Amino acid sequence: MNDTASDDAADQSALVDNSFADELCTYIAQQIVRDSTATVAPDTDLLLSGLVDSLGVVLIVEWIEQRLGTVIDAGDVVIEHFQTPDAIVAYLRDASPNPSLDP
Amino acid sequence: MRPVVNFPPVSLNQLVEPARLAQIGVADLRATAVTDGTRTLDWQEYDQAIGRLATALVDAGVEPRHRVGIRLHKTVDSFVAVHAVIRIGAVMVPLDPLAPEAHASAVLIDASVSVLISSSGLAGAELIDRARIATVLLVAGDPVPVPVPAGKALLRVIGPDEIAALAAMAPVDVVPDDPAYIIYTSGSTGKPKGIVHTHRSAMAYAAAAVREYDLDRFDRLANIAPLHFDQSTFELYAAPLVGATVLVVPEPVLRFPASLSALIADHQITVWYSVPYLLAQLSTRGVLADRDLSSLRWVLFGGESFPPGQLAALMRQLNGAQFSNVYGPAEVNQCTSYTVPGPPEPDSVVPIGRAWSAAELRIVDPASGQPVAPGTPGVLLVATDSMMTGYWNRPDLTAAAIDTIVGTPPGAARWYRTGDLVVEQADGNVLFLGRIDNQVKLRGHRIELEAIDAVLRDIDVVAEGTCVVVRPVEGDDRLVALVEVVDADLERSDTLERIVAELRARLPKYSLPAEIRVVAELPRTGTGKVDRGRSLELVWT
Question: Tell me, which fold does domain B12-255 have in CATH?
Fold first, then answer.
């Protein structure tokens, strides 16, 4: 992620908490999968089942960037970081410049 | 120029055989034959895995010429499965693992398949029941029991452990014209159409590909295309023909260009073959500047036009590689190749080029059938040994697609009508101009618009429907469906939900419209038929 002023960084990492994980799951279920019978839980595999396709990945990245006011490096949009909503959240926390996060 | 291997004639099911591989110079049978980034098989292991699965198939009652379905995600197991089926002289029918079960069962029923090679999770009860599958061989995944549909207690499931315990068998004898595999494509009525290839046609393609692209045992190919897409024949057959290594790229990786570029670099891939869409993604999102792709010597693209601006950008990023446009309907595997001399100008068109070594071309007037002069557009006919024998159980469609032209050179009497409009330029290179029917390409996938129309009309809430492809200058191409509804009073969101659910259940993902528009009235032609051209205009306004 881009370096931001430390205040912004603190805001950003504080945003990546459990409610963010829920928001992410809701976003994916409603806007990406768009199948009212599917549920997206924090540990739902997004990739193997074809739940999220190539366009879906791009949309999720854009949503995260808007939501957190940040920019995600293209080099970080890799399969390990997007396997499940939990994996996305873990990546976002790790990538945050502020190491002291409250879950 | 690298030396071409002079290999003795061999049938498709003899490609992966240690004795033959040693003969063609693969000295180390512990060299990697196939890998998916997680598991790796050397040539011995590959041969053994193929041989054991082949034995399992024979034990399951599969005989030569029987069709065997393969519904697997892309791993080394998918390549093993293909070669196991053809090892016993049976006919391989690959299925799209991401297509809905209704679509898969339509294919299985059409090909009269009763044996399926799959994994837990891809062998659903409804699929097995509808397609009347009698035996499932599980080659990957957890040994989770396949759910048995009610009343189907006779379903036989053979698990990976059972297969691993069997003795490996050698290839059976086949004759060149024995069918080897069937590639299914959508027919214009929506009913799937099976393109039948033989040992002869597949070998003719593989040999020509080796010649055209100087493949040898030091090459490392990336299998990008899924098994049901005929681009995969390049890695399936041309690779083992010369003893080249194959990296089977798992499908999820294709959605992450940054992961894909890393995999290609890590495995030192030398030849890449895919649809232009994936190459464009690689260029814009693949962080190529952070990857060492110096091993890549040849980039092949085909299945659809490559927008020249995107191609030029990629050629500058990968300036050590040659780039070639590959053209050929699945019915003939491939028939032309064009090596792009340099980054193309923005307004130029990349030609499909000249006939390659295995094919001859004829460009004819659609009305008279007579050859036209260079500079005059016409329909392309192709004669080649890599041609299908015909469409499975559809002699009517086969007769319509293949002309027997008297008086042409020996061995070129059968000509496949591509339905593509082309023109030969002064320099001898052929340009693709368009289709004479309603078949379109979307991200490399062949889509019959009429087939989607048929599905739309079949939905109970739809009175009439059509679909168009929108190709904006910026942004992705997309499929848009336009419908007239039966009951205009019905809640709009309910109607749309119903349509989306029906389409999802019946069409492969790539055929799903990105957008559905409900209109009061669809434009019609003078004869009352839905006017697709004016429907497209409606979408633009």
Answer: Rossmann fold (3.40.50)
Mode of pairing for the β-strands spanning B192-198 and B179-186: antiparallel
Residue A63 belongs to some domain of the structure: yes
What is the rounded CA–CA span in Å between residue B179 and residue B111?
12
Cβ contacts (< 8 Å) between A35 and chain B: which residues?
504
Size (chain A), residues: 103
Task: Report the domain count for chain A.
Answer: 1
Q: Are B318 and B270 in contact (CB under 8 A)?
A: no
* B492 interface with A at CB cutoff 8 Å: no
Q: B330-380: per-residue pLDDT in tens?
A: 999 999 999 999 999 988 999 999 999 999 999 999 889 899 999 999 999
Q: Per-domain residue ranges for chain B?
A: 12-255, 298-435, 441-540
Q: Among A35, A54, A83, which would you mutate to test the B interface (most chain B Cβ atoms within 10 Å of its Cβ)?
A: A54
Evaluate whether B121 touches B128 at the Cβ level (below 8 Å).
Answer: no
Residue pair B76/B248 in contact (Cβ under 8 Å)? The answer is yes
Calculate mean pLDDT across residues B119-125.
87
Chain B residues in contact with A34 by the CB 8 A cut-off are 500
Domain that holds residue A79: 6-95
A37 in any annotated domain = yes
Gap between the Cα atoms of B358 and B333, Å rounded: 11
Contact A57 B256 (CB under 8 A): yes
Output the pLDDT for position A8.
Answer: 57
Chains A, B: CB pairs < 8 Å: 42
Please check whether residue A74 lies inside any domain of the structure: yes
Closest CB to B256: pick one of A35, A50, A78. Answer: A78
Per-residue pLDDT of chain A (103 residues; tens, 9 = 90+): 555 455 555 555 556 677 888 999 999 988 787 666 778 999 999 987 778 888 899 999 999 999 999 999 999 999 999 999 999 999 999 886 543 333 4
What is the CATH classification number for the domain harbouring A65?
1.10.1200.10
Is residue A102 situated within a structural domain?
no
In this prediction the pTM is 0.89
Are the beta carbons of B258 and A35 separated by less than 8 Å? no
Closest to B217 (Cα-Cα) out of B483, B424, B15: B15
* Min Cα–Cα distance to chain A from B317, Å: 16
Classify domain B441-540 by CATH number: 3.30.300.30
Closest Cα in chain B to A76: B258
Q: Answer yes or no: same fold for B12-255 and B441-540.
A: no
